[in-house]
């Protein structure tokens, strides 16, 4: 405590404190007092608001030669930076034609000697040259930086400027990661009183030193105000160019919604067709610029609105696909005229979709359009339109992102969309639409309608490149940064798996574990199944010499699957049914068996079928909730057609639980009752009977013979069927047609009628 | 309309891509839940959802939503997403999930 301290020590301490106080005073002075930079954020804000009016004049003057000196200085510095950056960037990504097309290319300027080749950031030389023509034609494109800085009246070369202030800090993130530049200054910091850098400098380094607070998604200025030279050159007469997003509609607007808004208004003639569209790569920038850049921070995955540039990934749409409507007469309503003048080209946006998907979407669009035409739904929006028109003209937030910045953003997104194996990466989507097409194809075959184009989605496959992670290193620093990102994930925790001991497990646990084991086996078998189903595709893709190996692999896997199903245990001659029955008690197990059956050999499949028939009542009981057994009917039916008569006979015996010998039958046959009362059971029985009849009637030898196994069994079978009470018999899935003739062999007329009614064999109006 | 999404992100991204008709999204808002129905515009890896042309099932309860046409819903607040049953192939979806699990193991 203070009292305990001797006096002299106190003095020292106080002196120390005094020194500290002086320092603190100094700091305070620097921050708040006279030493601080005179910085009135309110003033800066007002300046910002007026900025856009002053800027055109200011900028035009700035592009003179007056500022050549400082620009050179800056240029060198930036070139240095850009060079270093380009070295860090992995070249291969940039050679991807899709990506490069996404980024607005300036092929003319590549010939500039000394310019950097294919870097994300073009050399300053290159950009300096384009600034001139650009400015002549368009509204000044102002980067984010420009807005944040106080506007100074245009000045000549200023030697007294502090160069160090203009020097932007180095990029400290690896470009491989693809994250946006690190902010040197936190968001919301009022801008420092920096010297107004040349206009060019801002363009060169889009990295914002001062960042505005998050803005709502902005769109580029409407058509006519913002066109890059590329766009202007390549599409001279189109009246609908600009950007797909008319500013008068709310931000994230899908082409579908645009179609609805248009409400039946047709698009003007002279619209570009998709093929023309492909030649103007610059379009990619615009729709994607509508995204909130905040979403990008530090993460690779993000929301992606439709990107017309994605077209580069796919071949041109097949000729059968109807081209977007051109040459349409203008639609109704003057308010819609304005809309249409900025009408988006939503059709081309959809070319990256599977053709079937596209067809479906267009159908919906048609429907919606018709609806809107009827309802005149766009009418109430007319009012909104006119008020928005004013907003369009003086949109203060337009052009905040440069085309280069937008290209950079879209490049990141395009890189994500690259896929080495779209079949694997996008399994659900591809297969879903393939199935749809197959279905519609099947329907067509039946319906004999017009043949639709069977279009396939062709995607180029990009070779996967191994990016070895090079840790970011700074000059003059020790050690390497460990940055974990999507490209090089780092292990955070070492999780060690410990297995529990087998002692003291209660009965319940054992039951639970057994079920778990079964589930596990099912999943293992499913993996095998998916693999086997994939073999056909692999076979087609593989080389000639690889094919035998592939076939062997496939056979081996099929055997493994069968073993998994039957539960082969060593030392057992015949595997018990138990394992299989366990699998069949679980819903996905049944589904899996249905899918595996076509791949098995006839003997294996017959074995499965017999086991099922043997244990059918138990399985029926277990299936009461799921009701999935009927899915097995069609593979079983298919299998039956491959089975010899002997097997069919014994199968029937199993199924009906018929007494083996000709002894007096048991008083009741619960097995058969259970089978008959179940939809699947009854259907299976009928199919088996039908098959037996087919075999019988097709084989002339057995026709004459009075006694053969089948006939004997049939006599017993019919007897049993007659005995069974009619309570609660199920309705079969399908009734084979030859059953009546089957039964007529073995029973007289009266009993035949009985059987018919009981089994509802004859369908007719009663 | 088309959904463009990073391919290798997740099975469900590809799954959501395949929809063309409106879906229902059920959102909890503290005490009360509201159902927003709309056309799926895009989905990201966090399952944030952008819907266009939305409608609320109970406009009297939530009149402030009458003028909203598009919305962005943060994935973490979504309780359920109701999808048109005829557009979903559950078997295929299961297969896709299994394949992805296999890939991740490798």
Automatic annotation (TrEMBL), chain A:
Q: Where does the record place Pro residues bias?
A: 316-333
The entry's keywords = Cytoplasm, Nucleus, Phosphoprotein, RNA-binding
mRNA decay factor PAT1 domain sequence ranges: 470-712
Pfam families cross-referenced by the UniProt entry: PAT1
Q: Does the keyword NAD apply?
A: no
The source's superkingdom equals: Eukaryota
| Coiled-coil boundaries | none
UniProt lists compositionally biased (Low complexity) regions at 363-376
> What GO biological process, any one, is recorded here?
deadenylation-dependent decapping of nuclear-transcribed mRNA
Which family is this sequence assigned to? Belongs to the PAT1 family.
Identification of the protein by name: Protein PAT1 homolog 1
Supply the source organism for this entry. Muntiacus reevesi
TrEMBL record, chain B:
In terms of PANTHER family, this protein maps to: SNRNP CORE PROTEIN FAMILY MEMBER, U6 SNRNA-ASSOCIATED SM-LIKE PROTEIN LSM2
Q: Where in the cell is it found?
A: Nucleus
A GO MF annotation of the entry reads: RNA binding
Q: Keywords assigned by UniProt?
A: mRNA processing, mRNA splicing, Nucleus, Ribonucleoprotein, RNA-binding, Spliceosome
Q: Name one GO cellular component term.
A: catalytic step 2 spliceosome
- By its UniProt entry, which InterPro entries does this protein fall under? LSM_dom_sf, Sm_dom_euk/arc, U6_snRNA_Lsm2
The reply on keyword Lyase is no
Q: Which GO terms describe its biological process?
A: mRNA splicing, via spliceosome
- State what protein this is by name: U6 snRNA-associated Sm-like protein LSm2
Family per similarity comment: Belongs to the snRNP Sm proteins family.
**Major place of localization?**
nucleus
Relate the protein's function as given in its record. Answer: Binds specifically to the 3'-terminal U-tract of U6 snRNA.
Instruction: State a single Pfam family of this protein.
Output: LSM
Domain Sm intervals: 14-83
């Amino acid at each position: 405590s203070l009292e305990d301290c001797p006096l002299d020590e106190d003095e020292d301490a106080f002196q120390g404190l005094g020194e500290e106080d002086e320092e603190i005073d100094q700091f305070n002075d620097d921050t708040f007092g006279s030493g601080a930079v005179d910085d009135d954020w309110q003033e800066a804000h007002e300046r910002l608001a007026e900025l856009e009016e002053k800027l055109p004049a200011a900028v035009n003057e700035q592009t003179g030669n007056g500022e050549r000196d400082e620009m050179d200085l800056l240029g060198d510095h930036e070139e240095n930076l850009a060079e270093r950056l380009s070295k860090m960037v992995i070249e291969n990504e940039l050679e991807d034609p899709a990506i490069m097309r996404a980024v607005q290319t300036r092929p003319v300027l590549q010939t500039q000697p000394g310019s950097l080749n294919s870097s994300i950031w073009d050399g300053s030389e290159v950009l300096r040259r384009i600034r001139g023509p650009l400015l002549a034609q368009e509204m000044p494109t102002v980067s984010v930086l420009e807005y944040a800085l106080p506007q100074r009246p245009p000045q000549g070369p200023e030697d007294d400027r502090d160069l160090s202030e203009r020097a932007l800090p180095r990029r400290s993130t690896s470009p491989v990661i693809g994250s946006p530049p690190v902010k040197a200054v936190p968001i919301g910091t009022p801008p420092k009183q920096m010297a107004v850098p040349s206009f060019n400098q801002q363009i060169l380094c889009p990295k914002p030193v001062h960042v505005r607070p998050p803005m709502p998604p902005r769109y580029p200025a409407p058509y006519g105000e913002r066109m890059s030279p590329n766009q202007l050159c390549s599409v001279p007469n189109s009246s609908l160019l600009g950007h797909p997003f008319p500013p008068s509609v709310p931000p994230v607007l899908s082409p579908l919604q645009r179609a609805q808004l248009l409400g039946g208004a047709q698009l003007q003639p002279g619209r570009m067709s998709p093929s023309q569209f492909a030649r103007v790569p610059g379009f990619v920038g615009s729709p994607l610029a509508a995204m909130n850049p905040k979403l990008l921070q530090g993460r690779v995955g993000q929301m992606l609105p439709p990107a017309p540039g994605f077209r580069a990934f796919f071949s041109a749409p097949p000729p059968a696909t109807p081209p977007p409507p051109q040459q349409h007469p203008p639609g109704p309503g003057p308010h819609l005229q304005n809309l249409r003048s900025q009408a988006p080209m939503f059709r081309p946006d959809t070319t990256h979709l599977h053709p079937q998907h596209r067809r479906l979407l267009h159908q919906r669009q048609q429907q919606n359009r018709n609806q809107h035409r009827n309802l005149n739904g766009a009418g109430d929006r007319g009012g909104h339109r006119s008020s928005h028109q004013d907003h369009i003209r003086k949109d203060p937030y337009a052009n905040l992102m440069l085309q280069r910045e937008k290209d950079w953003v879209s490049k990141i997104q395009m890189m994500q969309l690259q896929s080495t194996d779209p079949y694997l990466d996008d399994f659900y989507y591809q297969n879903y639409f393939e199935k749809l097409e197959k279905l519609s194809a099947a329907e067509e075959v039946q319906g004999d309608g017009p043949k639709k184009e069977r279009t396939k989605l062709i995607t180029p496959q990009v070779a996967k490149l191994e990016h070895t992670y090079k840790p970011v290193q700074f000059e003059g620093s020790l050690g390497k940064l460990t940055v974990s990102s999507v490209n090089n994930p780092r292990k955070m925790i070492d999780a060690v798996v410990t297995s529990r001991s087998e002692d003291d497990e209660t009965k319940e646990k054992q039951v639970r574990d057994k079920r778990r084991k079964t589930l596990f086996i099912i999943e293992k078998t499913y993996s095998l199944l998916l693999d086997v189903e994939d073999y056909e595709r692999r076979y087609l893709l593989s080389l000639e010499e690889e094919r035998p190996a592939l076939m062997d692999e496939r056979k081996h896997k099929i055997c493994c699957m069968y073993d998994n199903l039957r539960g082969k245990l060593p030392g057992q001659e015949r595997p018990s049914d138990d394992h299989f029955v366990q699998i069949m008690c679980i819903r996905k197990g049944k589904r899996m068996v249905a899918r595996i059956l076509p791949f098995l050999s006839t003997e294996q499949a017959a074995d499965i079928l017999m086991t099922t028939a043997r244990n059918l009542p138990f399985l029926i009981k277990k299936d009461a909730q799921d009701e999935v057994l009927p899915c097995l009917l069609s593979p079983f039916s298919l299998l039956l057609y491959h089975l010899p008569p002997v097997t069919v006979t014994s199968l029937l015996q199993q199924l009906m639980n018929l007494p083996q010998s000709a002894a007096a039958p048991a008083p009741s046959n619960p097995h058969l009752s259970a089978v008959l009362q179940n939809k699947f059971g009854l259907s299976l029985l009928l199919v088996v009977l039908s098959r037996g009849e087919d075999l019988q009637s097709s084989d002339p030898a057995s026709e004459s013979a009075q006694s053969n196994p089948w006939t004997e069994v049939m006599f017993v079978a019919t007897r049993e069927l007659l005995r069974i009470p009619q309570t609660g018999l199920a309705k079969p899935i399908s009734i084979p047609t030859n059953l009546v003739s089957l039964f007529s062999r073995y029973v007289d007329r009266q009993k035949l009628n009985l059987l018919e009614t009981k089994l509802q064999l004859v369908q007719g109006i009663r | 309309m088309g959904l463009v999404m990073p391919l290798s992100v997740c099975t469900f991204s590809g799954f959501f891509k395949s929809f063309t008709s409106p879906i229902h999204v059920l959102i909890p808002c503290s005490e009360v839940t509201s159902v927003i129905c709309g056309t799926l515009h895009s989905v990201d890896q966090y399952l944030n959802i952008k819907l266009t042309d939305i409608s609320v099932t109970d406009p009297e309860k939530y009149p402030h939503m009458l003028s909203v046409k598009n919305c962005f819903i943060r994935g973490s607040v979504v309780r359920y997403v109701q999808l048109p049953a005829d557009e979903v192939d559950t078997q295929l979806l299961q297969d896709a999930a299994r394949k992805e699990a296999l890939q991740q193991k490798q």
